[in-house]
Specification:
Layout: E1 15-18, E2 21-24, E3 26-28, E4 31-38, E5 58-59, E6 94-99, E7 107-113, H1 132-138, E8 141-145, H2 150-153, H3 170-185, E9 191-201, H4 203-212, E10 223-227, H5 243-253, H6 258-263, H7 266-280, E11 315-320, H8 339-350, H9 352-365, H10 382-393, E12 399-404, H11 422-425, H12 442-459, E13 479-483, E14 488-491, H13 497-504
Parallel strand pairs: 2-5, 7-8, 7-9, 9-10, 10-11, 11-12, 12-13
Antiparallel strand pairs: 1-2, 3-4, 4-6, 6-8, 13-14
């Protein structure tokens, strides 16, 4: 009998026929794994097209190129968000597959869209993006996707000719091409093309909404999971023409045509863009880093309606308690402070009248928390999530809202931060240190999240045996699952609190520090 950790890689094992040719992966840990399968190709600023067929068996045992990034970033914060970096190239339309078997079992398929806004990230950037445990323990096929980003994927060049008509959504077109690949090929990998869930965190979650609003994606997926990804105010659509930005780029690069801009070295292109970007940001002009509303993408639901064609797609929509505010070291040690001391801090900061109202609203929605935690409560992600869920739930009875509410064991216990729920989602808490601490039952929380996610990808309903009943939200009644060691479902937890908290706060969050 084959042991679960047995490794097999030879000319006859893990070979699958796709519509373009055969690919070879490897067997390990009870799974068959493929890395770097090409799903499309594209010229810069152009829509993707199908790859040519190949004759020989293509070896797909190494991750493919990731999209080039505008900057490298500074090392730091790896304890909270552990990164992996990889060789970059514009030929980045590739995907990875984890499957329990190359058979005809028609397993549910989870397609993971990575974070980083529409500007950064990759399918392997976070260590916990590995689909192995999800595939093995959930008996599902997991697919993660690389696609074009930043000005390579979202730069509107439509003023320069029909060939660039949808350049402002090229990255989204890549994702749609990946979903076509899944539809056409995933049955040969043991998956069901008629049961596909698109899921993503942060920018990846926002891309799920982009798919909902893109007619060309209809029928290629059947459910969606949006984790900290309702980004209406953080990443609004790139409206209007990017002609001025393109002309400034051309001037900086000493070229005069779109074709020359298309062919300039990518490092020079990025250097020029990074030079002109500061003078354009904040002007409202299209600088090409987000989806562009046009005939192929109707726009954010914050400004237009959800499309009728996708109104019955089940959605899980949620965020985490602290998001970006929780990245910084705790200003106060809540575990060593009395409640009176915490109240005094709030009174000193906001005045007694406002502090009293804040505390009353906070304790009503978050009775399980220390009152000082109100200073860490996110309202920039959670705030737009509330109207998003309300608008969506008015169309159907399959919109579920959640909040990851479990403190993590750093500095004695800090509110959960942006990305802190990713390891739990993938059943990968063993890959990150912060989930392993005395007196923290991270395994229990992981099991609840994972079992609910697996129930959702199978049936479109996240209720699972052994856990509290969770009803879908309705307009005026957001039923939020507050996930912790003792999860509870509460109604309208902070609908009155968040606007008042935002009013009280005098300084915005440091979004320039947001890495995902």
């Amino acid at each position: 009998m084959m042991g679960i950790q047995q490794f097999v890689c030879d000319k006859n094992t893990a070979v699958v026929e796709t519509k373009k040719g055969k690919v070879r992966g490897y067997v390990y840990g009870g799974l068959t794994i493929f890395k770097g399968i090409p799903y499309a190709k594209a010229k810069r600023f152009h829509s993707p097209v199908e790859t040519e067929k190949w004759e020989d068996v293509m070896e797909c045992t190494s991750y493919g190129f990731v999209c080039p990034l505008l900057g490298t970033g500074k090392p730091g914060g790896e304890l909270r968000v552990p990164h992996r970096f990889w060789p970059m190239d514009e030929d980045c339309q590739n995907l990875n597959v984890w499957t329990p078997g190359l058979d005809d079992k028609k397993r549910p398929v989870v397609v993971w869209l990575h974070g980083g806004g529409y500007e950064a990230g990759s399918a392997i950037e976070h260590k916990a993006y590995s689909g192995a445990n999800m595939s093995r323990l959930g008996d599902v096929v997991v697919v993660s996707v690389n696609h074009r980003l930043n000005i390579l994927g979202y730069f509107d060049m439509s003023d320069f000719g029909e060939e660039y008509a949808n350049s402002g959504n090229a990255g989204g077109d890549d994702i749609i091409m990946a979903l076509h690949w899944v539809h056409d090929n995933i049955a040969n990998f043991g998956g069901n093309p008629d049961n596909v869930t698109v899921a993503g965190q942060s920018g990846g979650g926002a891309k799920v909404t982009t798919l909902l609003q893109s007619p060309a994606a209809d029928g290629l997926y059947h459910k969606g999971i949006i984790m900290s990804g309702v980004l209406s105010y953080i990443l609004p659509d790139a409206v209007g023409s990017a002609k001025e930005t393109a002309q400034l780029l051309m001037k900086e690069l000493n070229v005069s045509t779109a074709k020359e801009l298309e062919e300039v070295d990518v490092h020079l292109l990025f250097k020029a863009f990074n030079k002109i970007r500061p003078q354009l940001e904040g002007t409202g002009k299209n600088i090409g880093l987000r989806p562009h509303p046009n005939a192929t993408y109707v726009g954010e639901p914050a400004t237009v309606e959800f499309r009728e064609e996708t109104k019955n797609i089940p959605l899980l929509v949620g965020s985490v308690f602290g998001e970006v505010a929780a990245f910084g070291a705790p200003e106060y040690d809540k575990y060593s402070m009395s409640k009176e001391e915490q109240i005094q801090v709030l009174e000193d900061k906001f005045g007694k009248e406002k502090a009293d109202k804040l505390i009353a609203l906070f304790e009503k929605g978050y009775p399980m928390r220390h009152v000082i935690d109100v200073l860490m409560l996110d309202y920039v992600f959670r705030g737009p999530q509330i109207p998003y869920v309300a608008k969506r739930s008015a169309l159907n009875d399959c919109t579920w809202s959640y909040l990851f509410n479990m403190d993590q064991p750093i500095d004695g216990g800090c509110t959960p931060w942006h990305c802190s729920d990713i390891p739990y989602f993938f059943h990968n808490i063993d890959l990150v240190p912060y989930t392993h601490a005395e007196n923290v039952d991270a395994q229990k929380v992981q099991e609840e999240i994972f079992q609910r996610v697996m129930a959702f990808v199978r049936t479109g309903n996240p209720n699972a045996d052994g856990f509290a009943e969770w009803e879908p939200s309705r307009p005026g009644c957001e039923k939020t699952l507050m996930i912790d060691e003792k999860s509870v479902v509460r109604e309208n937890i902070d609908h009155e609190l968040l606007p008042f908290l935002q009013e009280c706060m005098t300084e915005g969050l440091a979004w320039d520090k947001l890495q995902h």
